[in-house]
Amino acid sequence: MSQTEKHRLKIGIPRALYFYKYGPFWTAFLDYLNCDVKISGPTTSVIVEEGTKEANSELCVPMKIYFGHVKELLSEFPDLDYIFIPRYVSSHKEQFFCPKFLILPEAVKYGLNLNTSIITLEINVKKNSEHESAINFGKILGYNGETMIKAWDYATRKYEEFQNKAREGDYIELLNELDSNPKHKRKKKIIKQIIPEAIRGKFPVNILVLGHAYNVYETHINRDLISRLQAMDCNITTIENLPKSEFSEKITINEQYHQYWQSEDEILKTARYCLSNGSNKIDGIIFLISFACGPDSLIQEIIMRDMKKRKIPYLDLVLDEHSGESGLITRIESFTDMIRREKFQ
Ligand code: SF4
After folding, report:
1. Complete domains list, the chain, with CATH
2. Which positions fall inside the DUF2229 domain (predicted)?
């Protein structure tokens, strides 16, 4: 008996980590399967505090926030049938996701002593095709293979539509549209314009904001970085704005070091865009890095050296649960001022 013949399953999704990247896929996939999807609200100080209390202190901040969101979900929706926690191992045969994604379901289950069941979609193309992953997931819910393949293909189409819209649109707003819960609606923070109106738009600076989607679009932890830069008359480009073609060619670092981290591959390819097709479109790079992130600390050095060689201004901002607003504002103000002076002098 499928779940449509029983009751409509209530499945919770924490608004953290890969929700910022694959959330549109997951919600479409679960919608197709007639699940009642509940998403935790936007990150707050309480969520960060709770996550920090529960998670191992050596974890990166996005993981700590994830723990906080699971707790938040359970307190807002105590009657959930499942919490959806995918396991991303690999979606390209030669690469792996960060080990944190491999152990995420267990880390949450045992870290939080959960009583609510976790439902896991495992993506590991080294072992199963994507359709096989969907079929395995469907077995838990009582769906046959044909339905699961249709659900996967439907979600893939919806995800592509989302990505196409996101190339031009406001990514954060598009993500927020996935959650219809009125309690989770937040007014966009109004950031004071730094540049006087009379000269606004006359001396713009083009900044590439690099980093994982859960750092770039997590406005609580990055202190509204994108809006702040826009208030400083900066045009922003992110990974999500670039055409698919920028990601098709392989990254070669050197004979000894083969880049096998999947998300970092995307970041490196975006950095390469600044040195090739985008060299006259980008004036500077800001790389958002999570404190205690192993994969990012490896590629940070590579990106920094490349930008130095090509004299492209580069700034890295390390995020953790204690990141303060004033320090961040001072750093981005001086960075953009320096670029502007150089560009328009
Ligand atoms: S890639 Fe870095 S920031 Fe992301 S989960 Fe892994 S350690 Fe944390």
Report:
1. 10-170 (3.40.50), 187-344 (3.40.50.2300)
2. 10-241
Contacts of residue 168, Cβ cutoff 8 Å, sequence gap at least 6: 241
> In Å, what is the CA distance from 171 to each residue of 14, 104, 210, 214, 275?
18, 25, 14, 12, 25
12 touches ligand 1 (CB under 6 Å): no
Q: Is the CB of residue 37 below 6 angstroms from any atom belonging to ligand 1? A: no
23-37, 294-308, 325-339, range with greatest mean pLDDT = 23-37
Between CA 160 and CA 154 the distance in angstroms is 10
pLDDT tens-digit map of 214-265: 999 999 999 999 999 999 999 999 999 998 888 888 777 776 667 778 888 8
CA of 101 to the centre of ligand 1 (A): 8
Share of the chain above pLDDT 90, in %: 75
Token pair recorded at residue 133: 């992953």
Q: How far is the CA of 142 from the centre of ligand 1 (A)?
A: 33
